[in-house]
Hints:
Blueprint (H helix, E strand, L loop, with lengths): L1 H12 L3 E6 L5 H16 L3 E6 L19 E2 L8 E5 L11 H6 L3 E5 L10 E4 L6 H12 L5 H14 L8 H11 L5 H10 L3 H11 L3 E5 L2 E8 L1 H4 L4 H5 L13 E9 L2 E7 L5 H7 L3 E2 L3 E7 L2 H14 L1
Parallel strand pairs: 1-2, 1-4, 2-3, 4-5, 5-6, 8-9
Antiparallel strand pairs: 7-8, 9-10, 10-12, 11-12
Helix pairs in contact: 2-4, 2-5, 4-5, 5-6, 5-7
Amino acid sequence: xxxxxxxxxxxxxxxxxxxxxxxxxxxxxxxxxxxAVVLALEQLGxxxxxxxxxxxxxxxxxxxxxxxxxxAQVTELPLVDAVITVDCATVDRAGAxxxxxxxxxxxxxxxxxxxxxxxxxxxxxDSAAESTTVILAEWFSYLGVEITRExxxxxxxxxxxxxxxxxxxxxxxxxxxxELMRKGVDVRQVAIDLLDVRRVPDVILLGTVLSQxxxxxxxxxxxxxxxxxxxxxxxxxxxxxxxxxxxxxxxAGVDIGVVFKEYTPGEWxxxxxxxxxxxxxxxxxxxxxxHVLAAGYTAYGTExxxxxxxxxxxEAL
Length: 317
């Protein structure tokens, strides 16, 4: 990727003010990536701002990542010389910042989603990377950025969570984790903050939603389906709702786990998970995208209507 590293460095070389944008409903890889890039750019003498393009505040446990408290929730992209999107599979995932990003002359896309359409002026995309922070670690090495304890913490947060506590990935992920640990990252505390501790209301939500789990046939596939409707989840932070997804990833006798999340009445964020099926292709076919074994899309209508849409699509494959 030597030419791409160089092109990415050139894109920011004379930019003074740079926006670093993570995806809406951010997870630890998105927030960790934003924080790491902002800290790295500041080290290089740039003025950088971290942004999430939606007004709803992200989950409190993500504030344990160094620099997360500085990330602004915005309804539009401010005037900047360059934009770096991190962990955004499509430009739409930048939320309220997306329209301005789509027309901006200098956009660097850093991402690891297989479905990414390369929407940037320069694209650092590696679908083999376990997390976006893995790609950033390589780019920082090219740029000569010193990996401080704070940057290491942010990079490790994305790596640990996007690999399910290192349950899948390449040997390189363990090598990177070791390097970051040597920078002083308290990996036990990171695990507690981002993976282990759950609030009592979150456990109650989990029980409520999973108690309605249904196994449904759809073409050649068996689906484990749960619905998190608006009335059930409206008072919960996004991270609490998104945590439900991991419980349908590997259901015995089920090919694909599906979670329908109604964040806005009539609008569903649909998460697809599997340990054997390429759900990225399915999500792309329905207007979304993602990883091979973890993807999603947006659907509209009632519970019956959004499920019928997915079932029809799978039956037609």
